[in-house]
Design brief:
The protein is α+β, with helices and mostly antiparallel strands. It has two domains: about 70 residues, Orthogonal Bundle (Arc Repressor Mutant, subunit A); about 130 residues, Umud Fragment, subunit A, CATH 2.10.109. Helix content is about 20%, strand content about 30%. The mean pLDDT is about 85.
């Protein structure tokens, strides 16, 4: 969720808690928050209680320095173009059922090409090894540009028969069929008719996490 109606002080408290946890690994105390804001500990406590009621903060009453932002909270300075929707998984072996999720993958620290737009891009997590010879491995994230058409040799997100999605090279043939070609000799191409196939996107990048 995006941040609800908050006062400037409440927004500052949330930002301080987030930034302190990122830099130090633990939350600030009420006293430290008060000193940073120039207000009393009592005032900070009142703001914190209000933020907990608004579902912006969570706290373990039995732990010191346990304040943290609610997992679904998104502060305004986190709305970045490199925060892309993670819409599901994609088969790099046999096709799988296409399932939509509502997660995100934040690419700000990985790449941020100047002048690019994320409005028509999405991310899929790869399952399987059928594209291993083009350096797309099981568990990788592929960055895709939403398109409904492709050129020969593109790596495409292909929906087969409206419910099975796969990641393969796009190879149209003279007999009117489309071959979805793997990059692994252990797999055979998937051969479909044009009316069976819907191109949902073209792979434009790969991210691997170690």
């Amino acid at each position: 969720m995006t941040s609800p109606n908050l006062t400037p002080k409440q927004m500052k408290i949330l930002t301080l808690i987030r930034d302190t946890r990122l830099s130090r690994g633990y939350s600030p105390t009420m006293k430290e928050l008060g000193e940073a804001l120039g207000v009393s500990k009592v005032t900070v406590f009142e703001h914190v209680e209000a933020l907990i009621k608004k579902d912006c903060l969570v706290r373990d009453a039995n732990k010191a320095r346990s304040l943290e932002l609610s997992p679904d909270l998104e502060l305004p300075d986190e709305e970045r173009k490199t925060r892309l929707p993670l819409v599901g998984s994609i088969a790099a072996g046999s096709p799988i059922e296409a399932v939509e999720t509502r997660e995100h993958l934040d690419l700000e620290e990985i790449f941020s090409p100047p002048g690019s737009s994320s409005d028509n891009k999405f991310v899929l997590k790869v399952r399987g090894d059928s594209m291993i010879d083009c350096h797309i491995a099981d568990g990788d994230y592929v960055i895709c540009e939403q398109r409904n058409a492709a050129r020969r040799g593109d790596i495409v997100v292909a929906l087969v028969d409206n419910d099975e999605a796969t990641l393969k090279y796009y190879e149209p043939k003279s007999d009117g069929t489309i071959h979805l070609v793997p990059a692994n000799d252990n797999y055979e191409p998937i051969v479909v008719r044009k009316e069976q196939l819907q191109i949902q996107g073209v792979c434009v990048g790969v991210v691997r996490q170690y």
